[in-house]
Amino acid sequence: MKSLEERDRALIEAAGAAIRRNYDGENFHHTVGAAVRCGSGAVYTGVNVYSIHGACAEQVAIGSAGNAAAAVAAYAAKADMECFIMLPPGAVKERAWQNMAYGGHFIYGLGGVNDCVKMAEDGEAIFGWKNMCTTMMNNPLACDGYKTIAYEAARSMKFEAPDYVICPVGGGIVVSKVYKGYEEMYELGMIDHLPKMIAVQAAGCAPLVKAYDEGKKATEKWENGDTIAFAIFDPVTFEGVTALDTVRRSGGRAVAIPDDKILDAMHACAKMEAVIPE
User: Fold this and answer.
1) CA-to-CA distance for 139 and 118, rounded, in angstroms?
2) Is 106 left (phi over 0), alpha (psi -120 to 50) or beta?
3) Shortest CA distance to 15 belongs to which of 200, 171, 141, 189?
4) What digits encode the pLDDT tens for the residues 22-58?
5) Collapsing DSSP states into helix, strand and coil, what is residue 197?
6) Phi-psi label, residue 202: left if phi above 0, alpha if psi -120 to 50, beta otherwise
7) 33-37 and 43-47 beta bridge pairing
8) Region of poorest pLDDT, from 107-116, 154-163, 170-179, 206-215
9) Measured between alpha carbons, how far is 140 from 239 in angstroms, rounded to an integer?
10) DSSP labels for 36-75?
11) Mean pLDDT of the chain
12) 107 - beta bridge partners?
């Protein structure tokens, strides 16, 4: 078993401090805390919503392109919680209907996904909503959810690690978490090598690729973007620093694909695998 290093102990202490800050001594429900360190060295912490607020936060909110919002709305409905969903104008109307079918309150956002995320953050401060946006800055606990993608992929391959893993990138959240899963399996001796991570963006909105090609450590906002790939149409790469660090550290690369090639790949995937990806 790997022994704890000083940097590991620092994360454990950060998670404990987050619990202590939020524990009022009266309604204690076995609080769970988490802490993560991104590529820049910054540490983000989070706590279990159930533990802090008893049955749960009374109201939750999320700014999203639609997929994460649907998941939050579904779980909020199951927990009998009020849910507020902010989607940008480019989101397909079926996503709004899906969220409202779960009982979520749909708020038509202006601008892009990043503006909807900002609305959820503002609502947290003004109305007391629990912001459920999926970036590390908002919910560090989500890291251990995303990394299970790597575990599921490895299990399906009988723990023979692939040489490359291709991740679509919008806000840059998933690529580093998938790699985290592979790093854990490598440290545990479950796989014999680490894959190279390939971050893919639509050419019409590719801030991560631009930063990678220019040798930068952080991304800049992409202005006047245009692509059919709405699910990854994020002008702001929320976790650009971490995503860039992961791609480079793994020996991978970042690439941009034009819309016509995206459509070709969608048709090929549907024909060969009976799967229609977004």
Assistant:
1) 14
2) beta
3) 141
4) 665 555 554 566 776 665 666 767 665 554 444 446 7
5) strand
6) beta
7) antiparallel
8) 107-116
9) 12
10) EE-TTS-EEEEE-HHHHHTT--SEEEEE-SSHHHHHHHHH
11) 84
12) 86
Structure tokens at 204: 């019409």
Percent of the residues in the chain that have a pLDDT greater than 90, as a whole number: 42
DSSP 4: P
CA distance readout (Å), 118 to 71, 112, 122, 138, 238: 19, 10, 6, 11, 11
Q: Who wins on pLDDT, 113 or 100?
A: 100
Structure tokens at 206: 């590719």
Q: Could you read off the pLDDT of 260-277 as tens digits, one per residue? A: 999 999 999 999 999 988
Of 168, 146, 167, residue with least CA distance to 227: 168
3-state secondary structure 161-184: CCCEEEEECCCCCHHHHHHHHHHH
DSSP-based three-state secondary structure for 237: coil
